[in-house]
Amino acid sequence: MLSYEEFERLRTNGIKVNYWVVCHRKLWLFAKGLRMEPLSDRVALGQLMHERAYPGTPRREILIDKLIKIDLLESEGKVLEIKYSHKLAEAARLQLAYYLAYLRWLGAGELVGELRFPRERRREEVRLTPELEGRLAEALRGVQQVEQLSAPPSAESTTICRVCAYRELCWG
């Protein structure tokens, strides 16, 4: 678990936690201001699904401290994160854990998170356990290390590369 002082030092954008799990090169490029997501058809599909999923839920996309954007608040104490696919569930899990920890540090108490994959009709509850908090601390420290690199990490080919918005920057 992070101390309050370390958390303050490591505070970051929630998507960076996600990108740290997915690809350090993608994280570095994003951290340096390169935004390829607006050019991606897959990102556009995800945004469309996000906008149309759960139309009866009134509280959507809440931006806090210009760092974290919570997809939905379904009820008191429940934070939802909507994703296109479960294939990057670990990245989504840590991103949601970061939101839960961030809100706790702001004084919201112990909240429950839920990952939702509407296309697949899947749900996964996320709670801040000591193990998950340890992985989150590792991720936050890792994000800071990647951001401090003077050059991007080398590209590593994975199955996600073929649908990645940053593909052209790695593989031309």
TrEMBL record:
It is an enzyme of class 3 (hydrolase). The keyword Iron-sulfur applies. GO terms for molecular function: exonuclease activity; iron-sulfur cluster binding; metal ion binding. Keywords: Antiviral defense, Exonuclease, Hydrolase, Iron, Iron-sulfur, Manganese, Metal-binding, Nuclease. Its EC number is 3.1.12.1. It holds the Pfam family Cas_Cas4. Residues 13-171 form the DUF83 domain. One of its GO terms (biological process) is defense response to virus. InterPro entries: CRISPR-assoc_prot_Cas4, Dna2/Cas4_DUF83, PDDEXK-like_dom_sf. Mg(2+) or Mn(2+) required for ssDNA cleavage activity. Gene3D superfamilies: 3.90.320.10. Its cofactor is Mg(2+); Mn(2+); iron-sulfur cluster. CRISPR (clustered regularly interspaced short palindromic repeat) is an adaptive immune system that provides protection against mobile genetic elements (viruses, transposable elements and conjugative plasmids). CRISPR clusters contain sequences complementary to antecedent mobile elements and target invading nucleic acids. CRISPR clusters are transcribed and processed into CRISPR RNA (crRNA). Belongs to the CRISPR-associated exonuclease Cas4 family. This is CRISPR-associated exonuclease Cas4. It comes from Brockia lithotrophica.
